[in-house]
Amino acid sequence: MSFLLRRLGFYFTAFLIAISFNFLLPRMMPGDPIDALFAAAQGKMDPAQMDAVREMYGFMDGSIFEQYIAYIQSVFTLDLGPSVLMFPIDVTTVVGMSLPWTMFLALGSLIVSLILGVTIGTYASYRREGFFGQFVPPLLAFISNFPYIVTALLLFYFFGLQLEILPLAYTYDPSIDPGFTMEFIGSVAKHAVLPMGSMILVGIATWVFNMRNAMINVLGEDYVTMAEAKGLSSFRVMYRYAGRNAILPVATAIAMAIGFSFAGSIMTEVVFNYQGLGNILLKGIMARDYPLIQAILLILVSAVLTANFVADLLYVWLDPRISK
Amino acid sequence: MHSKKILASIVCGLLVSANGVMAEDIKQGGTLTVPIINTGFVENFNPYTSGGLFEGVLFEPLMVFNNMTGKVEYRLAESAEYSTDLKTITVKLRDNLNWSDGKPLTAKDVAFSFTMTKSAPAFDQKAIWSSGNLASVTATDAKTIVFTLNNADSTFIWGLPKYHILPEHVWGKVAAKDLPTFTNPNPVGSGPMTDIKYLKPQQMQLCRNTNYYLENRPYIDCITYRSYNDNSQVQPALMKGEIDWGSNFIADIENTFVAADPKNNHFWYPANDAIHLYVNTKEAPFDNLNVRKALSMALDRDEIVDIAAYGYPTTNFNAGGIGELYTPYISKEVTEKYKDITTFNPEKAEQLLDDAGLKDLNDDGFRQMPNGDKVEFDINVVNGWTDWIQVVQMVTEYYEEIGIKANVKTVDWAVYDKGLKESEYKMSINWSMVATNPIEAYQAYFLTEQIGKSWHAGHGVNSAEIDALVNSFGLTNDVAKQQAILDQLQEFTASNLPFIPLFSNATWYQYRTENLVGWPSKENPYVQPVWYDGGKRNLIINNLHLK
Fold first, then answer.
1. What mean pLDDT do residues B91-98 have?
2. Listed residue (B467, B385, B381) closest to B416, CA to CA
């Protein structure tokens, strides 16, 4: 129990530091939201109006310290104020619109690459002398070393622009009404293929190697030799005897991967004009929309910290020695 | 298949020419699809906070000042007149105006719409209240609105279309402090499209106002807005025929967009705001007029436009401070008289610099000040504005030819903006004002009170005399007298050269005639074809129809 309390204390401190950075980072960029607004208008707005507009957005009143106190309050009450980019709509509403799509993209690609990766890793380790074990893991390692943005742009170019078989933008065809219809679900799936595919291509190698390395250790254990000696089918040895034990370190790596997956989603969304958090974050940064940037970074921080906390809990459950 | 297409296009062609002859044959119906570059649509129909999405569409202006034809196009208003002392404007509304909910639109609504912005300064788009010149707006009867000014100002009226005419029975219920955050759900308007059919994050549709005051207008049924992230996504959408109207830069447009469907894909790039190199005349060696002249003569404007700006802008040879956007107001006399300043002539430029005492004393290829100090300066341009960066790059190359060392300096907007306003620059590229009348550009260039506020007044050429000349424009309503003032201002600008004219930006405008016709074009230039101006797009929406 005291272990958990210590961890909670640690996460709370980490959270406070992280949200302070969330506050500082956007303000360290040159220019403020009103400057950005006037820059975007390229002379179409009357400079005489600048002060009145600045006042309308309100949140920049007071010294930086007063702003900080107000910000901390807003984080704990979850009342994050109106967005500049989509004034006067609340940041919470804006984020609420796009968060589901990012979760769909980030978690969906994570789950798919996890399942595929673990399967491939298991098989590759078991057949590590053969063609599959020799060829597939290095190939995947090669692909995964491309940054998200490069893979995404390559897929965008070939499948979207050249072959024109998959859509280039949006989460679904804007002419379709959302709902539980085959048409809508099909459209969502079609629009998710490229962004999710690029994230899977990049993410999969991690799981292949995690699993493969853990498996190779386990495969040397006596009970595996024993199982093989008993004449069990290779499928049974591979998955029931070796695989189940090898998956433990993989489970704990998932926590880390959630954070990376969200980060990767941000890049991918921008390339495919996917209406998730990443897309909005980019626009928010360009518009110096402090409340929006803060809210999105807050979500990312919370996602990473929560995932790590869950991993800690998992450790305790898997290995009771830690809690002592 | 192929022959069918040809046949169809012949039939369509016949229909178009028939339309020209018999106006009553214009077909009703059809949908206009336009791209909107934003983060997605949200339920906010407040015209002052929704990023210009609805003006001219949901909300009809009183009138439109058409700077391409020089005419006033009356919309809700039927007339607007100044009193002889230029202190009162009387606006008369048309008969039988109604809101989209069926209630009558009266002078009271109009007076309310203006008075409302007094308590919401962020809505006071042209600072009519905060500048203190507007004393009151009153409805004297159901059709008449009277604006009373403290000081005579014939330019005041141009600001009126910036204010949206809103129903008092809806907006009158909103407390003043809530106005900026009011999202105006279930909007009531008087524009051509007031019926919100649907609103999804990536697309929304507005359909016709059945109470619109013009019979059979609009011809089209609906407008669809589609959301895009940036230019690069608008381009493929335009080529695939997803949208009908583009207002963005497209590289190599003849080969990418037009060639995809030469019959239906068109573009027209008339002149927009004039782009200048603003020079800080308070600093040596720019305090010497001949140096500024030399820096202007050193530039081959045709080449700059062709190479750095892809040939789309209009070269500006008018030294008088305004470009082809204001064609009817340009003084040909001034342009002719100062032609040598804007004509490429590096030999003359070098001679002027020699005469000014700027010579290469140490044989390093670059000129020095008479006392041996280095002459080297930065030209400010905004980070990421690639077309301008290329232009400035070319400018520095031309300067190198005449022995002047200049560098491209890309800075963030905030730095650039502050530099221009507080005249912390040696040379900086920037636009000039797009307005109803060029006097507004001169106000921004020269008025002493604009120093520190405008981007264009930091060059240091200011004086009480020139203030008086600029301000005298508003004291007369006589077009000939006003033109005389503009001529004097052009003469003053050309003879003092506080900035070096380069070219006029292009008005980016692509349109597709597969579905709709009636677009403004080179052959029928009835309005400057811009989407972002509520009044101008109102005229275009009213003119589009099925082919």
1. 94
2. B381
Quick check: A102 and A195 in contact, CB under 8 A?
A: no
Following CA atoms A61, A95, A266, B41 in sequence, which dihedral angle do they give, to the nearest 10 degrees?
-100
d(CA B454, CA B444): 6
Q: How many CB atoms lie within 10 A of CB A107?
A: 14
Phi, psi angle pair for B246, to nearest 5°: -120, 145
Least confident of A224-238, B66-80, B262-276: A224-238
Residue B130 to residue A35, Cβ atoms within 8 A: no
Number of H helices, E strands in chain A: 13, 0
* Strand arrangement, sheet containing B144-149: B77-82, B88-93, B144-149, B134-141
Average confidence (pLDDT) over A95-100: 88
Q: b/e for A77-91, b at 16 or more Cβ within 10 A? A: eeebbbbbbbbbbbb
Query: Residues B271, B68: contact at Cβ < 8 Å?
Result: no
Q: What is the mean pLDDT of chain B?
A: 89
* B195: three-class secondary structure by DSSP: strand
Nearest alpha-carbon partner for B41 in B213, B260, B256, B196: B196
Dihedral sign from CA coordinates of A71, A73, A78, A82: negative
**Long-range contacts, B472-480 (Cβ 8 Å, 24+):** B473/B154, B473/B155, B473/B439, B474/B86, B474/B152, B474/B153, B474/B154, B474/B155, B474/B156, B474/B439, B475/B86, B475/B152, B475/B153, B475/B154, B476/B86, B476/B154, B477/B82, B477/B86, B477/B154
- What distance in Å separates the CA atoms of residue A91 and residue A81, rounded to the nearest whole number? 6
> What pLDDT sits at residue A58?
64
| Mutant choice from A46, A184, A270, A271 vs B, greatest count of B C-beta within 10 A | A46
pTM (2 decimals)?
0.82
- Rounded to the nearest 10°, the torsion over CA B73, B76, B79, B82 is -100
Q: Nearest-CA neighbor of B379 among B266, B439, B295?
A: B295
B431 contact residues in A (CB cutoff 8 A): 42-43
3-state secondary structure of B53: coil
What are the backbone dihedrals phi and psi of residue B352, each rounded to the nearest 5 degrees, phi first?
Answer: -60, -40
Angle at alpha carbon of residue B388, lines to B382 and B394, rounded to 5°: 125
Give the closest residue to B359 by CA, choosing from B350, B368, B371, B348. B368
d(CA A266, CA A148): 10
Q: Is A87 near chain B, with CB under 8 Å?
A: yes
In single-letter form, the type of residue at position B258 comes to V
Kindly report, residue by residue over B187-200, the tens digit of the pLDDT: 999 999 999 999 98
**CA B244 → CA B222, B229, B238, B533, distances in Å?**
13, 17, 7, 17
Map tokens 């016949």 to a residue.
B14
Window 301-320 of A, Cβ < 8 Å to B: none
Using the Cα atoms of residue B124, residue B126, residue B131 and residue B133 in order, give the sign of their dihedral. Answer: negative
Most confident region among A36-50, A101-115, A290-304 by mean pLDDT = A101-115
CB pairs under 8 A between A and B: 105
Give the best residue of A28, A34, A38, A42 to mutate against chain B (max B CB count within 10 A): A42
Sheet holding B31-37, edge to edge: B31-37, B222-228, B203-208, B193-200
Residue A59: what residue type?
F
Alpha-carbon gap, residue B210 to A87, rounded angstroms: 30
Percent helix, percent strand, percent coil in chain A, to nearest 5: 80, 0, 20
Closest Cβ opposite residue A283 in set B39, B42, B412: B39
Inter-residue contact B427 to B287 (CB < 8 Å): no
- What is the C-alpha separation between A60 and B457, in angstroms, rounded? 28
Q: Which pLDDT band, with edges at 50, 70 and 90, does B1 fall under?
A: very low
Cα gap B161→B75, rounded to integer Å: 10
